[in-house]
Amino acid sequence: MMNYIYDILINLNNSKSYEFYEWRDSDNIFHIRKVPILKVSNDKFLDIKRNNIIIDKDILNKIKNKTEVYQDLNVSFINYLCVFACDIDVIVVEFNKDGYSINKSNMLLEEADDTLFEVCELDNDEVEYEILDSNYKYNIDDTRYEEEVKSYISSEINYLVKKRDYTKLKYLYYEWYNKKNNDMKSVIKDLKNILKIDYSNKHDNLFDIIKLSNSM
Question: How far is 24 from 39, CA to CA, in rounded Å?
């Protein structure tokens, strides 16, 4: 028997499920009337939350057209969407018709707490899936703003590499590492590596430098 939760807000995003305090009015926010929920082990939950997956066809068929969305004065449907819950957390996942995860959303804090209370006595559902790849381009702990800063820096580095603007690349390298380097392979590699490390005020400084240089 399928279990459901009711009356929640979700913010579907195809890159990362943002925390509720990072949501914006321009985001893809839906008021859900009714949505299926599946309980899984903590390990499976982390797999589902942190990775792109393809879900088993049986699960896909069970959740098909079961999610109802308030839309003006009517109710519409999302084809393949459900909530996954473990003992300590919840995540909303949308799939395409082939079972590939395409969007995810966290829930509002109070609604997530209510959902965890609702499922605490439920047994785990049989959920089979295959992990495709990580859906986090950068550090999983980066905030939305930090991701956007890193994305901006990454775009600038790639643009400069494509243009072969070695002077500016070496300038950015110096601003970050406080030393000169004339080995362009090393410069490019080291600049790209700063996107993989934990966020710091150095990312903010480099972001400001790039913006300032591009406005001149």
Answer: 29
Which among 185, 152, 145 is positioned nearest to 169, based on CA atoms?
185
CB atoms near residue 170 (< 10 Å): 18
* Interacting residues of 114 by C-beta distance below 8 A, sequence separation 6+: 5
Question: Could you say which DSSP state residue 104 is in?
Answer: E
List helix spans (H) across 19-165. Answer: 42-50, 57-63, 109-119, 144-163
Q: Which of 152, 137, 45 is nearest to 89 (CA)?
A: 45
DSSP three-state, residue 98: coil
Q: Which residues contact 174 (CB under 8 A, 6 or more apart)?
A: 180, 181
Nearest of 34, 129, 141, 45 to residue 87 by alpha carbon: 45
Backbone angles phi, psi at 42, to 5 degrees: -60, -40
163 contacts: CB under 8 Å, gap ≥ 6: none
Q: Are 94 and 102 in contact (CB under 8 A)?
A: yes
Q: Which residues contact 215 (CB under 8 A, 6 or more apart)?
A: none
DSSP state of 107: B
pLDDT in tens, the chain (216 residues): 899 999 999 999 886 788 888 898 889 899 999 999 999 999 999 999 989 999 999 999 999 999 999 988 899 999 999 999 999 999 999 999 999 999 999 999 999 999 999 999 999 999 999 999 765 554 567 888 898 899 999 999 999 999 999 999 999 999 999 999 999 999 999 999 999 898 999 999 999 999 988 887
